[in-house]
Amino acid sequence: MVENVALPLTYRGIPTAKRLERSLSALEAVGLSSRLSHKPYELSGGQQQRVAIARAIAADPDLILADEPCGNLDSRSGKEVMELLLSRHKCGKTVILITHSISDAKYADRILTVCDGKLYK
């Protein structure tokens, strides 16, 4: 799983030690540090979703597009992911959250709604 999270960092030219450090940190942030030796097929759908989130945050992007980041997660894991995205926002990162969840939307500073193809504030 660590290699899965680290792979995009390879393409960015990040040295091996730094890739490992970032990957382990990201997996810990999404609550998967106890599953490091597992293969993707050994993980639940929610755990696989958290690996994808770890892969995204390991790159430390300035912009995070999060499309239903909690869609396959239980309420506890979903709250942890939302807190993680909120902490990224507080560090100056831009987070665009696409969700149907009113409770997830409440984390946002600004909420825009799309209905019948029209954008509402």
Automatic annotation (TrEMBL):
One of its GO terms (molecular function) is ATP binding. SUPFAM superfamilies: P-loop containing nucleoside triphosphate hydrolases (SSF52540). Residues 17-70 form the ABC transporter domain. Gene3D superfamilies: P-loop containing nucleotide triphosphate hydrolases. Signal peptide: none annotated. GO terms for cellular component: plasma membrane. This is Protein containing ABC transporter-like domain protein. It comes from human gut metagenome.
